[in-house]
Design goal:
The protein is an alpha/beta fold. Helices cover about 40% and strands about 20% of the residues. Strands 16, 17, 18, 19, 20, 21, 22, 23 and 24 form a nine-stranded mixed sheet that branches. It has an eight-stranded mixed sheet with strand order 35-34-36-33-37-38-32-39, sandwiched between helices.
Length: about 1550
């Protein structure tokens, strides 16, 4: 086609004559007009043309040659026709489809169709594209297959079937690509392709010729973890189809490796699979544990394995270091082998969940597995039979840079052989040879060492074994030894065997061997230079590192000044390769230092001896041995370094809760430090001085401020619920300089009082000019906890490492001699009572041992603690007693005093000093008197010191020395001033007085602490104490009470001061407090937001966990159960309350001790020890939100108006009785207090968090939570069973619980419980079903339902009255309860019955509205008078079109009949089944009549019936209706039968669909 012709066509487009273009192109082949489509597109896009004309043109061009249309469509899309091509194409979708059909009819290449589909794929159903793809097999490239799969949106199975059917190498290549690579799977959003799916595909491919077989083998080999790298498979990963075809032609038809396929279980194996390996598969199957059963799907780079998903986890992640054997990590090689076995053979196995992480917004579980021994009995017997020197067949498994890893033939026993030994034996024995066992390990799981025997390395004598063990224990700590790989351990054993002196060496990092080094011949041999360098070396210390460069052994020596020596070893001689270099001037030297900077070895420079090229060196100098030592030591340090990293990583994972808590503490420190930025100024009119009589000795000012001001200074913003009643405050001047340190408190009247620290403060300036306040950071207690966590988790000798290593020793009570209890009650306890055992185990606790004593409520925790303390005092042990709360410390202190323990000290941690009662005032008094005596002696002229101090004495030597030193200062001052009347002497006396006070307060404190047997304080208080924090006083035993309530850090702080640890608590009671809002704020903070792996739930769990709980339920679990004692008898509660608590929270394991039966109090209205009051039926019983809390006025008012009036007389008559009113919510407690006028009772109201350790004779507990079932709401922390346990177990004699049981027992009001433990819903259902439950506001409907009346029950003599036009009120008595309900009746009842008549009712049941429904007991009355639907049986007396009379028993009932459903005529005097609807009209239930009829009659039976009526079907055929006694039957007959006549008929058919009985008439049967 010429340009002239194109111009002509262009003019047609401009003239809107586009329809003439096809005729112009007739007879012109496409090849002669390739420029046409592009030209057409340009012109059409340039000039306005009607879309319909364009489509007509495309259709005609497609009919001529599809290539025209293809080019035009592509061009239009590319040129963005009309700027709206997709709308354009959507509008003409029908024509577009016709064009595709035209392409297919012309056998268009699939590549061309795909090309268009890629541009217009969104306009058609994908099944249409599937049809197109299936009509062509001309795919030229894998990309066309992949594009087709994308556009047709095939599933993985559909795609694989499509590709297999293609039977082309291109399709098989594409199939292998989608099987082996995840990239395309991700694009298609396919699920993970399982091993079974791939094997199924391989099985299908095997039946498609040699090409299919070869590709099947290739796919399976790639999925085989033991297969070697495959060039053919690499072309798949490179997506190189051309190279694939080239390799493919070289592969033999039978398959490169000819793997076997097991169709029965879809497991593949290479031909070397033996019966022994099949035994491994069977053995694996036998070790499937209970728990989370999963299959390993992938194992990447021998670093991380991925399992299938489960529960709400997207998948599981398994690291080799989390493969354990009896709680200890196995070697990395062994772990990888185990994971490969599970993956290869597809066996599911059980895993434990260590923790969870989020990756790409998906939740994964970090798994661990403690596996059983995988060695079969056959392998064990083989191992026992092997001995050193035996030769065995083998198979090479893999290789390292220096070793072959081999496997003994037909077994799973593995080992190593060096390249040198392997080559040596190969050269000696030829191609087929066996390996010699050089050293046999101690167990089957350790690797065997093959090769030449190494006498000094692996065959060490038994007398040396102990020194090797000693060396290992010296070089590694316990946890490092447990993580030491067997191969690495063998290396260290070789080192210790060859160099036994290392065992006794203090510092093996120091190389004390001499390095005698020559200059090379090619170096300038300058005696001056040699001397200069040697002198420099003699005065320096160097690091030294062995390295191999270009096959040569080098020693790199360098120091802090970056001076570098490079020494090379040639045979048995060291040479200096070049002069000493300075890394500051030499880039090469700098690189050398950088490459060797991690070395740990050092050498004194004087041990490096430099020699000239021809200088004499002793013949016995062994450079080779020296280098070998340094090289082996370097290997050791590398092993040590890697091992420390591994241990640190394991510790970090195990210590995740501690890490989370440390992060939270650091965040609190940051927040506290920011308080210094919170500043506020108060004018003088806001300030009022307070007298000392009111505030004590401290100076104070009353400040007029708002609650928001106080919250601002405290750093809590505008919080509505600030819990800090005092905060640290600084005053500052206008320049920002701090003047005074103060405490800002809120007193009982709600006033804000500023206390100045220190006495005699002049506050006039503040009162006259106003005051500037700023928040002061209080971080000391936080820093102490951070440091304690760090020391606890990272210190090599810490209890935490003992726990991880399983090194917690079990107390041996057999070592105790005759044991006598101080408390005689311990001798008279019940037979199986654990209290005496707890005391004995505490006394038998070994050093660094830990004992948990779990004490459920009332089981005598404090009594047990006091007995343990008294026993320890008797053994002259020093004891530290701590708790998280002051109340618990005070309780123990009080009980110790009561039993006569006077050598005890309680720390006042508020002032960080000791109680004033411990100050020896007598010594201080003597000091002042001795001062006066000394002055008199000085004035008398005495000069000799011994004379001046004669007769001065104090209570002990320590105090004597302190005070004598002060007396000597007076003598010194007197000698310098020669007079006692000068002002300087008076000043000196004042200073001495202050110093004496210091002695009494601080210097004496250490002596006082040392003298006490028992010191008590809070966990944080002892850590902040100025004497104890320095750890100068060490305790034999640390006892922590309420340990389950202290968080991890709080517990660890005092544990740093002792040798043995006793944790007493109950992790079924209150946990550590957690501020979830602060945690949310922390995780949202930019600084902490980067730690995405920590979720809010994980952080809250860490803060909510105590060390007691951590040890009790340790994840591995390595804490020995013998170190836990549970006190199992309670002595606090009435037996009924005790059983109630034991059943709810302790599985009934806690029994009632002696004397609990006496815990009774008589309250007439509440006779039972446990009473549950249900408010579900009360009006206005729902909760209200108030000040970010909740309250329930209904419950509070009931407590005030109903419960307390019944209890108060009992309290008056028994003043010793105690009352506790408890609620989970602060607002509820405050509201109850506002209702109560009695101060004593008002002070009895408590929240849950304030009562642990307390007990009351009578407890009233208010649940508060109550809301409508239509509200999607949860009961929140009322579900916390630990808090509920604490609340209810405070009661000794009477427990009264009030709450909405409907709310509490509603499934939707609770989150789903995960894991084991107490289920809140079960607890609340037990409460709701208590036999002593009282239901308040109970309606008569509730009462009626509670009687569980059976349907059909008759109520006689019921009275009634009219209620509405259609309803009456019926009243009756049942089981001493009166009931009145409404009942709908018919108009006939209202017309015929009078109210002085009684009626009998029948209970029908509950309706959809949960109300009871009644009918009349007599069936006639039910039909005649009830408005209910009634089914009944009756005889038709008379009937016309609209009305019917039915005889029911002795009575007749006249009513309307519903003719709409009457398909058959009704016979008089026949009995039918009727249904009466609510509108009183009746109809016959033909279905029921039919069912009854066919049960009593059979086909072929004869029956006599009367003709009722007939219907003419045609001229000869008549349908007769026959009355057969109970059913109207039909008979079709050509015979004429008169109406009313009686004949004999035969049953011919029962039509179950139309519910019709058909008869046949036979004249012969008529008489």
């Amino acid at each position: 086609m010429t340009w002239k012709s194109l111009a002509h066509i262009g003019s047609l487009i401009k003239s809107n004559l586009i329809h003439r273009i096809p005729s112009e192109l007739e007879g012109i082949p496409y090849n002669d007009s390739k420029k046409l489509p592009k030209y057409l597109c340009t012109q059409i896009a340039k000039y306005s043309t009607y879309p319909t004309d364009v489509w007509d043109l495309i259709e005609k061009l497609a009919a001529m040659d599809y290539k025209y249309a293809q080019g035009l469509l592509y061009g239009l899309n590319k040129n963005n026709y009309k700027n709206y091509p997709r709308l354009f194409i959507r509008t003409f979708g029908y024509q577009f489809k016709k064009i595709f059909d035209a392409y297919c009819e012309q056998n268009a290449k699939i590549a061309d169709i795909i090309f268009l589909m890629r541009n217009f794929d969104i306009f058609f159903d994908h099944s249409y594209f599937k049809g197109i793809a299936e009509r062509s097999k001309e795919f030229a490239a894998p990309s066309q297959y992949l594009l087709t799969i994308k556009l047709t949106r095939l599933s993985f199975n559909e795609a694989s079937n499509f590709l297999i059917k293609e039977e082309t190498l291109c399709a098989y290549f594409t199939l292998a690509y989608i099987c082996l690579l995840n990239k395309f799977r991700n694009q298609m959003n396919w699920a993970y392709i399982s091993k079974k799916e791939v094997i199924d595909i391989a099985l299908k491919l095997q039946s498609h010729g040699n090409s299919g077989k070869k590709v099947a083998y290739m796919i399976l080999d790639e999925w085989n973890p033991d297969a070697e790298s495959d060039p053919l498979a690499e072309t798949i990963y490179d997506y190189d189809f051309e190279k694939f075809k080239e390799y493919f032609q070289k592969v033999p038809d039978q398959g490169k490796k000819n793997p076997k396929l097991d169709k029965s279980n879809s497991i593949w194996a290479i031909p070397t699979t033996t019966k022994q390996e099949e035994g491994i598969i069977e053995n694996l199957s036998q070790h499937i544990e209970s728990g989370t059963i999963l299959r390993i799907l992938a194992f990447k780079n021998e670093k991380v394995a991925l399992t299938e998903g489960f529960m709400d986890y997207y998948g599981g992640i398994l690291y080799p270091q989390n493969i354990l054997y009896k709680g200890h990590p196995v070697s990395n090689n062994e772990a990888c082998r185990i994971i490969k076995l599970y993956k290869r053979y597809g066996v599911k196995t059980g895993f434990g969940i260590q923790r969870s992480i989020n990756v790409d917004e998906k939740k994964y579980a970090i798994l661990f597995k403690d596996f059983a021994d995988f060695i079969t009995q056959k392998d064990k017997e083989l191992f026992q039979s092997l001995k050193e020197g035996d030769k065995v067949d083998f198979k090479i498994v893999t290789k390292t840079p220096h070793l072959y890893k081999v496997r003994v033939a037909n077994s799973s026993l593995e080992g190593y052989v060096s390249f040198d030994d392997y080559n040596k034996q190969s050269n000696e024995s030829g191609n087929a040879f066996k390996l010699t066992i050089a050293a046999k390990p101690t167990n089957e799981k350790a690797p065997i060492i093959f090769g030449s025997p190494i006498p000094h390395a692996l065959k060490c004598n038994k007398d040396k074994a102990s020194s090797i063990d000693e060396g290992l224990n010296k070089l590694f700590n316990a946890i490092e030894l447990q993580n030491l790989d067997t191969k690495d351990k063998n290396v260290i054993e070789i080192l210790l065997t060859d160099y036994p002196e290392l065992v006794s060496k203090d510092n093996i990092e120091i190389i004390d061997h001499e390095i005698k080094c020559r200059f090379r011949e090619d170096m300038v041999d300058s005696k001056e230079y040699l001397k200069e360098i040697q002198e420099y070396l003699n005065n320096q210390n160097f690091w030294i590192s062995p390295r191999m460069y270009n096959g040569e052994d080098h020693l790199i020596v360098f120091n802090q000044e970056k001076k570098v020596l490079d020494i090379i070893r040639e045979k048995n001689t060291f040479y200096l390769t070049k002069r000493m270099e300075n890394a500051n001037n030499s880039y090469q030297a700098q690189k050398t230092i950088e490459a060797n900077k991690l070395t740990k070895m050092k050498i004194e420079g004087k041990n490096i001896k430099l020699y000239g090229t021809y200088d004499y060196i002793e013949n016995d100098y062994d450079a080779e041995s020296t280098y070998l030592l340094i090289d082996r030591l370097n290997t050791f340090f590398k092993i040590k370094y890697d091992l420390q990293k591994k241990v640190h990583s394991a510790l970090y994972q195990s210590a995740q809760d501690f890490v989370n808590q440390s992060d939270y503490l650091k965040y609190q420190i940051d927040q506290e430090n920011q308080r210094r930025n919170y500043q506020k100024t108060f004018e003088k009119n806001c300030l009022t001085p307070i007298s000392g009589e009111v505030q004590g000795e401290s100076v104070a000012i009353r400040i007029k401020m708002t609650e928001n001001d106080y919250n601002f200074l405290s750093g809590e913003g505008n919080s509505e619920d600030s819990s800090r009643n005092e905060i640290r405050i600084n005053t500052f001047d206008n320049a920002g300089k701090i003047i005074d340190h103060c405490i800002l408190k809120i007193n009982v009247e709600g006033e804000y009082i500023l206390h100045f620290i220190g006495s005699h403060k002049n506050i006039d300036d503040y009162l006259q000019n106003g005051i500037n306040l700023q928040g002061d950071a209080n971080v000391k207690h936080l820093n102490i906890q951070v440091d304690a966590i760090k020391e606890f988790t990272l210190d090599e000798q810490s209890l935490f490492r003992d726990l991880l290593g399983g090194n917690i020793e079990i107390p041996d009570t057999s070592i105790l001699n005759e044991f006598n209890f101080f408390n005689s009650n311990f001798n008279a306890v019940e037979n199986n009572n654990n209290q005496p055992m707890a005391v004995k185990k505490a006394m038998a606790l070994p050093k660094n041992g830990i004992l948990l004593i779990q004490g459920p409520p009332g089981t005598g925790k404090t009594t047990t603690i006091v007995e343990i303390i008294r026993q320890l005092i008797k053994e002259k042990k020093k004891v530290l007693v701590c708790s998280q709360s002051h109340a618990a410390v005070g309780n123990i202190f009080k009980k110790l005093n009561n039993v006569g323990c006077d050598n005890i000290l309680r720390i006042d941690d508020d002032n960080e000093t000791i109680d004033t009662k411990n100050f020896n005032s007598h010594d201080y008094e003597m000091f002042l008197k001795n001062n006066l005596t000394l002055m008199d002696r000085l004035k008398a002229g005495k000069a000799k010191e011994s004379d001046l101090l004669e007769g001065f004495c104090y209570s002990n030597e320590f105090i004597y020395q302190q005070y004598i030193n002060l007396h000597k200062k007076i003598i010194q001052y007197y000698g310098e001033n020669n007079s006692l009347d000068t002002p300087i002497v008076r000043k000196t006396l004042r200073e001495l007085e202050k110093e004496a006070e210091s002695i009494s307060g601080s210097m004496l404190a250490s002596q006082v602490y040392q003298s006490k047997s028992v010191i008590l304080g809070t966990c944080i208080g002892v850590g902040m104490n100025f004497v104890l924090k320095n750890k100068t006083i060490h305790f034999d035993t640390v006892i922590i009470d309420e340990a389950a309530k202290a968080n991890l850090a709080e517990t660890i702080v005092p544990m740093q001061m002792g040798e043995r640890f006793i944790l007493v608590g109950d992790d079924n009671q209150l946990p550590p407090y957690v501020d979830q809002e602060e945690i949310e704020t922390m995780l949202a903070d930019a600084k902490y937001k980067e730690k995405k792996e920590v979720t809010k739930e994980e952080m809250v769990t860490s803060q909510n966990k105590s060390l007691f709980e951590y040890l009790h339920y340790h994840r591995h679990p390595l804490f020995p159960k013998e170190n836990l004692v549970t006190l199992n008898y309670q002595y606090r509660m009435n037996p009924a309350i005790g059983d109630f608590i034991s059943e709810l929270f302790y599985d009934g394991k806690i029994k009632n001790g002696k004397g609990t039966e006496k815990q009774v109090v008589d309250i007439q209205e509440y006779p039972n020890p446990v009473t549950v009051i249900d408010t579900s039926s009360m009006k206005f019983n729902y909760e209200q939100r108030f000040n970010r809390s909740r309250r329930n006025k209904c419950e509070a008012n009931y407590i005030k108006n109903e419960i307390l009036p019944k209890i108060e007389p009992v309290l008056v008559n028994n003043p010793d009785l105690t009352l506790g009113i408890i609620s989970p919510y602060t607002s509820q407690c405050e509201y109850i207090k506002s209702l109560i006028s009695d101060k004593k009772i008002r002070e009895s109201v408590h929240t849950i968090d304030s009562i642990q350790g307390m007990e009351f004779d009578i407890v009233i507990f208010s649940f508060v939570r109550s809301f409508s079932p239509n509200i999607d709401q949860k009961v929140g922390f009322v579900d916390d069973m630990k808090r509920l346990n604490v609340s209810l177990s405070r009661a000794k004699k009477k427990l009264i619980i009030i709450g909405n049981m409907n709310t509490l027992t509603r499934d939707s009001a609770h989150y789903e419980s995960i894991g084991e433990g107490i289920k809140p819903l079960d607890v609340f259902k037990k409460l709701a079903n208590m036999p002593t439950k009282i239901s308040l506001g109970k309606t008569q409907l509730d009462k009626f339902n509670s009687l569980e009346i059976e349907e059909g029950t008759i109520f006689d003599n019921c009275t009634w009255s009219k209620s509405t036009k259609a309803c009456i009120k019926v009243s009756f008595t049942h089981k001493n309860e009166n009931f009145t309900f409404q009942m709908r009746v018919s108009d006939r009842f209202m017309e015929t019955k009078t109210t002085d008549e009684t009626i009998s009712l029948r209970y029908i049941g509950l309706g959809k509205d949960s109300k009871p429904y009644f009918g009349f007991s007599d069936i006639y009355e039910e039909v005649a008078y009830s408005a209910n639907k009634v089914e009944f049986e009756g005889e038709v007396v008379s009937c016309n079109r609209n009305n019917i009379v039915i005889r029911i028993g002795e009575n007749c009932f006249y009513t309307k009949i519903n003719n709409e459903n009457q398909s058959k005529p009704i016979s008089l005097n026949m009995t039918y089944y009727f249904v009466k609807r609510q509108k009183n009209a009746v109809e016959i239930d033909w279905n029921k009549c039919y069912e009854h009829f066919i049960k009593t009659h059979h086909i072929g039976d004869k029956i006599e019936g009367q003709v009722i009526s007939k219907i003419m079907l045609n001229d000869n055929l008549v349908l007769y209706f026959i009355n057969c006694g109970i059913y109207t039957c039909g008979c079709v007959s050509w015979e004429y039968l008169e109406e009313g006549s009686v004949h004999t008929f035969v049953y011919s058919q029962f039509d179950n669909v139309k519910k019709r009985v058909n008869l046949k008439y036979f004249a012969k049967y008529d008489k």
